[in-house]
Amino acid sequence: MPTFTTTDGTRLAYRVLGDGDPLLCVPGGPADSRYLGDLGGLSAHRRLIALDLRGTGRSEVPADPSSYRCDRIVDDVEALRVHLGLDRTDLLGHSAGANVATQYAIRHPERLGRLALITPGSRAVGIEATGEERRALARLRADEPWFPGAFAALEAITRGTGGDWEAVSPFFCGRWDDAARAHQAAARPANGQAVAGFGAEGAFDPPGAREALAGCGVPTLLLAGEYDLNSPPGTVAAFAGLFPDARLVVQPGAGHYPWIDDADRFTAAVRAFLG
C-alpha cells in the first residue's frame, strides 16, 4: 500500500484501484477507506485513489491529536495531490468525508475539475437533519421485519433517552441482508479519538463556508439515498442549493452506501457527472 508524508510529518497511506483519469476519494467515519471498495465498479472507469485518513487504516496516528480536525485533514488531501503530481483532479467525498471535500473546494478550487459528494455530511455548512425528518424517512420502511426494534431505538436516540446506534443500522442500508451487515461493520470507525477530534472546536465555520460556496464555480454532484437517515434527501437538497453549479441525484431504494444497494445505478450516475 503506497504512502506519503503529509505537512506535519505524519505518514499516510492510500489505496489505488483501476485505471484512467484519477479520482481522489475521501472516506467518511473517519474510518478505514477499505469500506469504499471499488465504489460499485467505478474503478473500471476511473483510477480511484482512496486516502486512509490519519489514525485510520494503515495511516499513522498523528503526534498532535488536534490534527484530527476536519479543516486540518484538508491539508492531507492537498499533500496527496502534490505527492501524486496532479495539477488538477476530480474529488469524491463520502459521508463525513464530504465535509473535507467541501472545505477543499473552498480553499483550492483551482485544483479541482469536478466534485462528487456522496450521501454527504453537511456539518461544514451548518445543515442538520431534524428528528422529525428522520422519523418520516424511517416510517417508509415500516413493512420491514426489523422495523419495530429499529424504530424504537431511533425514537430513544431522537429523544435523548438512549444511544443504541447498532439497533438503527438497518436504516442506513437500502436492504438489510448479510452483505449489508458485513459492510456496515467494516465501515464502523475504529479510532474513537479520530471521530471525536474530527468535529472539534474550530473544525467548521458554517457562515464562512456558505458564503464561500456561493462563489465556488466547481461543478458539483450531490447524491442522496432515498432511505438514508444519516443524510436525508431533503438535507442533501438544501446542501445542493448552496452551490452555483450543482446536480442533485436521489438514488431510489438506496441508503447511506448507494454503491452497495445498486452498483449499476450508482456508477451510472457518477460516470454521467464526471464524464
Q: How would you describe the overall organization of this protein?
A:
The chain is of the alpha/beta class and 275 residues long. The protein has one domain (3-126, 173-274): Alpha/Beta hydrolase fold, catalytic domain (Rossmann fold), CATH 3.40.50. Helices cover 35% and strands 16% of the residues. An eight-stranded mixed β-sheet has the order 1-2-4-3-5-6-7-8, sandwiched between helices. A hairpin with a 5-residue loop joins strand 1 (3-5) and strand 2 (11-17). The protein is globular. The model has no long low-confidence stretch (mean pLDDT 96).
* CATH homologous superfamily designation: Alpha/Beta hydrolase fold, catalytic domain
Shape: globular
Count of helix runs:
10
Uncertain runs = none
The CATH topology name reads: Rossmann fold
Please give the share of residues in helix. Answer: 25-40%
Distance between the termini: 28 Å
Q: DSSP strand (E) fraction?
A: 15-25%
* CATH hierarchy, class: Alpha Beta
Mean pLDDT across every amino acid position? 96
What is shown here, in short?
The chain is of the alpha/beta class and about 280 residues long. About 35% of the residues lie in helices and about 15% in strands. The radius of gyration is 18 Å and the shape is globular.
